[in-house]
Design brief:
The structure is a single chain. The chain is about 75% helix and about 0% strand. The N and C termini lie far apart (about 65 Å). It contains ten helices and no strands. It folds into two domains: about 1-100, no CATH class; about 115-175, no CATH class. The chain is mostly helical.
């Protein structure tokens, strides 16, 4: 074997060890926070139960740090494809946004575009524009979304325009 190839193999080996260590550390932290029985229960829920029901991650949605580790763990343990995990990436992005870590939020939210409808893309684009403090793009997304007639998402983007200078959590939860 040549030296360059050997160095690349060594690098991949160490990166793999780092990944495993981080994954195991995240898992240990989740298990410590939830208990092993609850961890196992959550990891064995169907995707719909984990994502959309009050028995999944949503019961912990006020614990942003925990959920920001729990969702990627679920994706990893259940070996979800990009399409299957699209909604989970969105919700993970929301958890980061609620926690004020907008860079991570945007990164996750962008992963939710795949396979989405035009309506969904407008909502994601508008939300990201709010996080980036790009009012023109937010207003453009809202204008386009109004043509799609999706009232719930229109209301959120309207709140983002109205509370543009506020943090995501405050704008999202405004009455």
């Amino acid at each position: 074997m040549n030296v360059k190839f050997n160095s690349i193999l060594t690098l991949y080996f160490f990166l793999g060890l780092v990944f495993l260590h981080c994954t195991n550390a995240d898992r240990a932290g989740i298990v410590e926070a939830l208990g092993s029985d609850e961890y196992e229960r959550l990891m064995h829920l169907s995707l719909d139960q984990f994502d959309q029901s009050s028995t999944g991650f949503r019961q912990y949605s006020d614990r942003y740090g925990l959920v920001s580790r729990l969702i990627p763990e679920y994706i990893l343990v259940n070996n979800l494809s990009a399409n299957e995990s699209r909604n989970l990436h969105w919700h993970l992005g929301q958890m980061h946004a609620f926690d004020g870590t907008y860079g991570e939020a945007i990164q996750e939210m962008k992963q939710s575009y795949a396979g989405g409808s035009k309506t969904w893309e407008c909502y994601v684009t508008g939300t990201i524009a709010f996080l980036e403090k790009d009012k023109a793009s937010l207003e453009e997304a809202l204008f386009t979304l109004r043509k799609q007639d999706n009232q719930m998402n229109i209301e959120f983007l309207e709140k983002f325009v109205q509370y543009f200078d506020k943090p995501y959590k405050e704008a999202y939860n405004a009455e």
